[in-house]
TrEMBL record:
The protein, known as: GntR family transcriptional regulator
PROSITE patterns, per database record: HTH_GNTR
Superkingdom of the source species: Bacteria
Domain HTH gntR-type, residue spans: 10-78
GO molecular function, one term: DNA binding
Length: 461
């Protein structure tokens, strides 16, 4: 008779089930061996018959035992596998904490509209319970697509239909959809330097991406025409990372490049934060060929943790896109979409953008003032500071870029150069200021200045 002891750590049923299962898998109980009757085992172990019956039923349902009418329960034939080795504990790599991170595009907690977001959330959870639990189109919630269409009309003068809009959890996800839509045998052109993650996305899908050099106006047209590129990715409103804004002449040249088989993906990632003048018209809005795909995100305007992005397809691609990829469910939850839709419809989003534009303009001016009043400005200069949330800092003398970054890192200051994004190894660095603490900035400038002076002193010998 099999014998087990029990503790108070789990139910008797679970303990008995586990004990018998272990004896079967380790071979203690042999194939086709008859198990004690429910009544006999219950009496032997001093437990209830119901407990034994429930354990047997679980073992039966999982295939560890089988029953014979009027005979009882028997051990099933189980392939005995070697014991599982202890799985080593895998520690996630902790992100190195920096005192100042010039590469971060994070949003300060002080700037997120928590009060209005909470108000809208309560309204949605109270008044839209039915809609929250209904299946939604693969393109995304109709309410959110309608809200985005109105926002684009008011802010960018883009007249689009909600049916042209596709919602996704981040632009990387949307790029993946476009790759699947256009196919894996087309060539994608990338601005270089440019958004490094995008090349990783194309690499992960095993498609060919071609780096294209840029000049002070954007992608070099001669390089584009000499390449086999079918689909070009550009950031004309505020190129990342150089910060340049593409002038109208280059935009017209780009649009003249497209034809029946070529397309442009326009990434307008931080167009809401142009600091001087009104927002620039998008390529999409001046395109007469209907071959520009517009892409934008809420990660810049709201928070880097709000993973909601959208793209606007040319009208003639909408039905083909639905036919090919509508089997995908939308990757953003209906809860988040309903809240964001109401947030836009009730005017909170526009108020937030206006407020943040004022905050960022003031912060940019303070950063520039700190720089111009610091000795660092005597050996470096700032450029491309009139759009978006980053600008460039260029050292006016020859330095070892990697050595410069390493010393700063040792002092808990993180900074990236254009070479980190595929650019030339020149001493030009990206300054993201959205999450910077102004109190820490003078110390960072001191450190940069000291490194430069030390490099100059060393090179003079």
């Amino acid at each position: 008779m099999i014998t087990y002891s029990f503790t108070n750590e789990d139910t008797l049923t679970n303990q008995l089930y586990e004990a018998i299962k272990n004896d079967i898998t380790n071979g203690t109980l042999k194939d086709n061996e008859k198990l004690p009757s429910k009544r006999a085992l219950a009496k032997h172990l001093n437990i209830s018959t119901i407990t034994v019956e429930n354990a047997y039923m679980q073992l039966l349902s999982e295939g560890y035992i089988y029953s014979k009418p009027r005979s009882g329960y028997y051990v099933a034939h189980i392939l005995h596998r070697p014991k599982r080795q202890t799985i080593p504990l895998i520690h996630e790599e902790k992100k190195e904490k920096m005192k100042i991170d010039f590469s971060s595009n994070a949003t300060s907690p002080d700037h997120f509209p928590f009060t209005s977001w909470a108000k809208v959330s309560r309204y949605v959870l109270t008044n839209k319970q039915k809609q929250l639990l209904e299946p939604m189109p693969s393109q995304g919630l109709a309410d959110l697509r309608e809200a985005i269409a109105l926002h684009l009309l008011d802010f960018k003068d883009m007249a689009v239909s909600p049916s042209q809009i596709i919602i996704g959890a981040g632009t990387e996800y949307l790029y993946g959809l476009l790759i699947q839509f256009f196919g894996f045998d087309v060539f994608y052109g990338l601005e270089t330097p440019g958004y490094a993650t995008l090349s990783h996305v194309y690499e992960a899908y095993h498609v060919t991406s071609i780096p294209l050099p840029i000049d002070h106006e954007g992608v070099k047209m001669s390089a584009l025409y000499d390449s086999p590129v079918d689909i070009l990715h550009v950031t004309p409103g505020h190129h990342f990372p150089t910060g340049i804004t593409m002038p109208i002449n280059r935009r017209v040249e780009l649009l003249s490049w497209v034809n029946t088989s070529r397309y442009i993906i326009e990434d307008d990632y931080d167009s809401e934060f142009r600091m001087m003048g009104k927002p620039l018209p998008s390529l999409f809005s001046i395109d007469t060929t209907d071959h520009v795909i517009y892409m934008n995100t809420f990660t810049k305007t709201l928070s880097s943790t709000v993973r909601v992005s959208y793209m606007v397809l040319p009208v003639h691609l909408v039905e083909a896109f639905k036919k090919k990829l509508s089997f995908y469910n939308c990757s953003v939850s209906s809860f988040e979409q309903e809240i964001l839709a109401s947030f836009i419809q009730e005017g909170y989003f526009e108020k937030h953008i206006n407020r943040m534009r004022t905050i960022y303009r003031r912060k940019r001016n303070e950063v520039l003032h700190l720089f111009t009043s610091h000795p660092l400005s005597s050996c470096s200069h700032i450029s491309e500071e009139n759009a978006g949330l980053h600008f460039l800092l260029t050292i006016d003398c020859a330095i070892d870029v990697n050595h410069f970054k390493e010393i700063l890192k040792n002092h808990q200051i993180k900074i990236k150069s254009l070479s980190d994004y595929g650019g030339d190894p020149t001493p030009t660095f990206i300054i993201n200021y959205s999450s910077l603490s102004l109190d820490d900035l003078p110390g960072a400038f001191d450190m940069m200045y000291d490194i430069i002076k030390e490099e100059q002193s060393r090179s003079s010998y």
